[in-house]
# Entry
Amino acid sequence: MLSKRTTIIVCIAIFAIGLLSGGLECFRMYKNQRGKLEAGVLHYALAFPIDEVSQLTGLPGDVDSKLHEQISERQVELLDSHPAISFMELIRLDRRSGRIVCLAAAGPGEEAARMPRAGDSLDGTPDARPVLELAGGAKTAVRLFHRDWLGKRWVSAYARAGEPQEPVNGEPLMNVLRYDVDASYWIRHISENVLWRMFAVWVVLGLPFAAYTLGRYRSRQSVRLREFGEAIEQTKTAIVISSFDSVINYVNPAFCAQIGYEKNELMDLKWRTLRCVEPDPEEIERRLEILRTGAPVEVEWEFRRKDGRTYPVRTTLTPVRNESGSVDTMILVIVDITGQKKRDAALLLEKEQAEQMDRAKSVFLHAMSEEVGVPLRNLVALSDSLRTMPLNNEQAGYAEIIQKSTGTLVRLTDDILDFSHITAGQVKISPVLAEPRVLIEETLDIVAPQAAQKNIVLLRNVMRDVPRAIIIDGTRLRQVLLNLSGNAIKFTKNGEVEIRLKVISSGNAAGNDPANRNRMSLLFSVRDTGIGIAHENQEKLFLPFWQADSTNVRRYGGAGLGLAISRHLIHMLGGIFAWKANRGRAPFFIFP
# Structure
């Protein structure tokens, strides 16, 4: 197959050769037509003998003479004998004086008033140049494609009507015949021959090239069709080609192996009969309407093999349009999805088992937290009562250890219980009217004793544009703030912990949508001056039961559930949980 570039070059070359041939033909026709024009004027010049023409005086009085009338009639006869000739004129040159005059002229009747008359001077007219050429010894003269007073183009030829002679006065005279041919006749005749020559060259050169190119294209297409056919025959994917009414026209070996029939057994059989269950007629009609539009359809059916066994298939039906644009053929790609169905069933079973185990784990954690929580709270109450009794220093130390340990266990069981409720989907969000400033104050009041023990300064920074009240689940928001501020105090040796709040977008910037007019985005952030988090540990920050350093469990306590619980709660509130942290720089938690 020729490349596109080569084909274009060859086509341009054929076109150029045709143009060159047309140009040569134009030059040849021009010489031929000019030769005919010159031969014609020499021939017609013989019709006006010198002795006869010499009797004309070249004065206006010649119009009334019998000789002038005869010559004029002869000119008209010559014009009638050749339709292409429209004007004829006899001209006289006085060699001595150089004066050029008209002797007689004949032409179309509608132009009689504009034609020169006997005795009219032609000095300085376009006729002067060819007449002087003849006087200089030329046999003929030609004037090409000039326009007359009406704007019509003509081709004129000039020849001597006879040899010069000496009149009575002794002044040599030369009589000249001029006739005009319509230039459109010339142009039409030359153009027809030029176009025919170019067309002939293009046909002679173009047809063999077109035949060669078409043959190569068909050969290439035949190779491609053969390769395509071989690919379909060898592919492991089952392919069926049928008419629109489901009559099978072709099946490949893969489908025969899949269904268990021989190819000849499936020919002219309707593939719909291979389905185990016929779909609903309305569903069939709906799919047929889609196929008529030219769009493919993908469905799942059950086919029955020759031995009676059934198996699930996913079938893609692709319609094929004919030359008229209507769909008369379909290509079916049929995939046996038995293995996929088994895998899906296994995955579903695993999912159900995992969900069941998750529920069992949540029930277990909830039950354990409830069972452990009651005695722990009793221990807390007893330790509080014990510290109010008169104790020596050693006994007071033991009581303080018991109080701290039981407090830690209570917080741990509360976190485990919350986490189990969240993962089990048992936590519900209840938006109510809440005051964000009050929530922050309550949070700081709760963690104030813990901060006071470490001499940590608690800061609150709320922007003035923050509204007095918002609709949100205040309990869950306060739980998040407590988790974050408690963590901040826990991991800060000295310095400060700050809770910030500002407005980042409001309903005024939400466009004209009434649903967004009363919506607002608030940015809560908790900042501390603690030990910070290494970059490599930041991705694990929200994993349950994980801490950046295992020694933190012994040093600071906790189970590593606070951040995981906080992130889940923020997402349930419709927010986003983010942070900024580096080694040596405290984390900066943000949740808009």
About this structure: The chain has 14 helices and 17 strands.
